[in-house]
User: Which sequence fits this backbone?
């Protein structure tokens, strides 16, 4: 793996030099854009809107439009906006992970300790595990201030990006049902159904079956064949009554 960021994790007066590595990867298939007439690759060019000529990478800059004029932003400007956060993940507080709404989660990175003395790294992992807490911090990643939590996964320190509060849209414009319309017997049946389906979380049981099936289709097409596609079987109840639907769901699960 290649590191994508180098700096340190800090809490109190303790400073731990680290490198960050992407902890996630895509399982989807990578497709190329082709011309349908001769299957030639489609190439995209960075073109100047005035001259219609291609612009080389070293001539491209970032600009922010202010009062109908562009202000050019340099790499140093991004760092100057938050200099104390440019190379350190400073833990500002410790929180319960259970208190973080899953809507805030973005992506995760493995933090590898750098240097010979890894005792502080091991200490932070052990302290977080025993306290069942996560560190809440901010730092600059790819010229953008990032909010994150620092938490242990087994014996690895993981930095997970989370969204800022203003990035979550309000629900005020949604039309939602009134929970008072749900009767007690319907609620009891719903809870019974949840308990019947309840199990320990084990994500390894789930595979990206869509990509696997799509790859099978691609390989069959390469041989000039068209594979047989399984039809989705949707189980339905003849009743429109919510209670009857819940009851039939419980019976179906028991039968399975």
Assistant:
């Amino acid at each position: 793996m290649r590191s994508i960021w180098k700096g340190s994790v800090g809490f109190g007066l303790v400073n731990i030099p680290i490198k960050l590595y992407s902890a996630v990867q895509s399982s989807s298939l990578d497709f190329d854009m082709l011309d349908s007439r001769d299957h030639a690759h489609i190439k995209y060019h960075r073109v100047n809107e005035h001259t219609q000529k291609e612009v080389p990478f070293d001539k491209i800059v970032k600009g922010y439009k202010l009062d109908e004029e562009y202000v050019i932003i340099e790499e140093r400007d991004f760092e100057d906006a938050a200099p104390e956060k440019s190379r350190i993940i400073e833990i500002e507080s410790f929180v319960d992970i259970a208190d973080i709404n899953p809507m805030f989660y973005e992506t995760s990175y493995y933090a590898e300790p750098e240097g010979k003395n890894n005792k502080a790294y091991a200490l932070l992992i052990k302290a977080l595990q025993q306290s069942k807490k996560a560190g809440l911090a901010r730092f600059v990643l790819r010229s953008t201030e990032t909010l994150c939590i620092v938490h242990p996964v087994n014996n690895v320190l993981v930095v997970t990006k989370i969204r800022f509060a203003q990035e979550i849209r309000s629900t005020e414009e949604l039309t939602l049902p009134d929970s008072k319309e749900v009767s007690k017997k319907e609620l009891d049946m719903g809870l019974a159904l949840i308990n019947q389906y309840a199990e320990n979380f084990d994500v390894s049981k789930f595979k990206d079956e869509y990509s696997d099936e799509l790859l099978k289709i691609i390989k069959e097409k390469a041989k000039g064949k068209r594979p047989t596609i399984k039809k989705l079987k949707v189980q339905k109840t003849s009743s429109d009554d919510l209670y009857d639907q819940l009851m039939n769901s419980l019976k179906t699960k028991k039968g399975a």
Q: What stands out?
A: The mean pLDDT is 86. The chain has two domains: 5-28+62-167, 179-255. The longest helix spans residues 184-197. The CA atoms of residues 122 and 155 lie 8 Å apart.
